Amino acid sequence: MYDIKLLGTDDGQNHGTRNDLAYDTAGMVQTISLASKLKQDMTKIMISEVGDNKFFTNYGTNLQSLLHKNMGQADVRKEILASVMYAIYYLNGVVNENGADAELIKSITSVDIRWDKTDPRIVYVRVEVLNKLDETIILTVGS
Length: 143
Fold this sequence. Notes:
The chain is built from 3 helices and 5 strands. By secondary structure, the chain is of the alpha+beta class. The protein has one domain: Nuclear Transport Factor 2, Chain: A (Roll), CATH 3.10.450.40. The protein has a 3-stranded antiparallel β-sheet, with helices on one face. It has a two-stranded antiparallel sheet with strand order 1-2. About 6% of the residues have low confidence.
């Protein structure tokens, strides 16, 4: 399957505006597929808050809301891990269920959660997955 390419989601470059449409030199909207699409889909679900998508009410994570809860860091870590794991499996089972093997997750190999050293309100989540072709996809988002 194909999707519209969004700037800054699959190439690791900072284009100034993240998640804006990407155009080629002829002014045509660029599309992506396979592992790049999977990484973009993972980015979109990770930065979306649960309930923001009226068509997929379980789409997203609770990262933003969890950071503002009055809980200890260990409890927040557990909740973030659960939210991220659910979102990734939800992405695979509902959103991408008819995707190509490169767009489907075989397994989550690691989820690393760390807080910013200078600002404890910022958390970084690094997710590593294997797609069904055994290609490693790594995504880090900051919240």
